[in-house]
Amino acid sequence: MATDYDAPRKTEEDTEDSIEELKSHRTEKQSSSAVDIDETDLADAYELPGADLSGEELLVRVLPPQADEFTCFNCFLVKHRSQIAREKDGHLYCKECES
Residue ranges of region Disordered (predicted)? Predict the structure, then answer.
């Protein structure tokens, strides 16, 4: 909202509004600013965990694991072999999971 800084300010003599008038102005502002949001529009943006995505196509090209990469057994992220912190029972763990 634009404010006119050159307009004369109200003095204490001008501001003789009663408490009832101030309360009525406050409730009018609150009721007029209420926004009606349709909950079904919001729900369309969410994907549920058990949703059927069989008709969807991947837009990302998936590459097989490279020779210099490994999958951390704890966080399941693909990392460079320089990030190996330890190997236990044939499983590799990254530095972030071990710290």
Answer: 1-41
At position 36, the amino acid (one-letter code) is: D
User: Judging by DSSP bridges, how do beta strands 69-71 and 78-80 pair with one another?
Assistant: antiparallel
pTM over 0.90: no
DSSP 70: E
Which has the closest alpha carbon to 73: 57, 84, 58?
84
pLDDT tens, position by position, 24-63: 777 665 554 455 667 777 777 677 788 787 887 878 888 8
What one-character-per-residue DSSP string does 24-58 give? Answer: HHHHHHHHHT-----HHHHHTT---TT---TT---
**Contact call for residues 64 and 70 (beta carbons, < 8 A):** no
**Residue 59 DSSP class:** -
